Amino acid sequence: MGTLMTTEASAPTSAPTSAPLAAGPRRPSLSAGVRPLVDALVGQADALRVAVSTGPLGCRIVDAGVAVPGGLEAGRRVAEICLGGLGTVTLVPSTRFSPWGTLVSVSTTDPVLACLGSQYAGWSLAAGDFFALGSGPGRAVAAVEELYGELGFREESADTTLVLETSVVPPEAVVAEIATRSNVAPERITLILTPTSSLAGTVQIVARVLEVALHKAHAVHFPLEHIIDGIGSAPVAPPSPDFLTAMGRTNDAVLYGGDVQLYVRGTAEAAQDLAKRLPSSASRDYGRPFAEVFGGYGCDFYKVDPLLFSPARVTVTAVEHGVSFTAGGFDPVLIARSFGA
């Protein structure tokens, strides 16, 4: 694990351009949207208990929980960076899962672009023993995933930001790959590290509650252009120093405690069908803590039913007809078991 040194380096300010791949209205720039958020995170590093250093090839490393404590507020801010500056993440009190009295609430101005185009952990980065999934606006700059062809969107930018779910500083080879794929100089790359077992990591993972609903809607072939808005919430899971326990708790927060409402165009029948198919209860693996499910498959992520990754309860509103459909439900008993009550 690398030693991180605090520095006052600031992000470059070159203006990016959004380059839609399909005809239609000009889309907002994710890179421009997060720049002030990243600058604020770096500028308040001491207060937020994060550390900023120069990493491999001169990239900027923001440690939000590897060698420093980080915290809930750092995680909230990182979650908004993951959303490409198009979303708001708040911590709100709730008695829904007492004694776990706080929810992460997420809303966006463009759920498809914010959640799938930025927040989704879709970029696999590996070199030697290192592996991490990349989230954030840097994905749209590299656009290595087929998803960007479907979204009709990619960006060009002189700087780029990625959030990595890792407890290890990435090696030089990973930074070089990001620079090459993004056509960005290494010293203009910002990598924010959020270990799953950290407080910041816990918040930014649970804040994906809306994203997993969008991802599943895409998986069941609902037209993404029909999704016009959405909001979601899920309980803040207590962290654990054990990786498997921490991963299980953050997943369970969404699978058994997540609540999402989507606003869609189209027929009432299509909205009703989407509501039935979206909740985690539609999966064959539903009903057990995620750590138990994962362990039962020999810790092989790809053997887990992909339809499990979705919120516990989903409401879909057909805005052109004024009707809403709700499916799924919460499991506070399983939440308490998973969270260690």
TrEMBL record:
Entry GO MF terms: methenyltetrahydromethanopterin cyclohydrolase activity
Ranges of Low complexity composition bias in the record: 1-23
Annotated stretches, region: Disordered: 1-27
Keyword Hydrolase (UniProt): yes
Location, primary (coarse class): cytoplasm
Keywords: Cytoplasm, Hydrolase, One-carbon metabolism
Metabolic or biological pathway, per its Swiss-Prot or TrEMBL entry: One-carbon metabolism; formaldehyde degradation; formate from formaldehyde (H(4)MPT route): step 3/5
Known EC number: 3.5.4.27
Gene3D superfamilies linked to this entry: Methenyltetrahydromethanopterin Cyclohydrolase, Chain A, domain 1, Methenyltetrahydromethanopterin Cyclohydrolase, Chain A, domain 2
Cellular compartment(s): Cytoplasm
Record field: catalytic activity: 5,10-methenyl-5,6,7,8-tetrahydromethanopterin + H2O = N(5)-formyl-5,6,7,8-tetrahydromethanopterin + H(+)
One of the Pfam families matching this protein, by short name: MCH
Keyword match Ion transport: no
Protein role: Catalyzes the hydrolysis of methenyl-H(4)MPT(+) to 5-formyl-H(4)MPT.
Stated family: Belongs to the MCH family.
Name listed for the protein in its UniProt record: Methenyltetrahydromethanopterin cyclohydrolase
Organism: Xanthobacter agilis
Name of the gene: mch
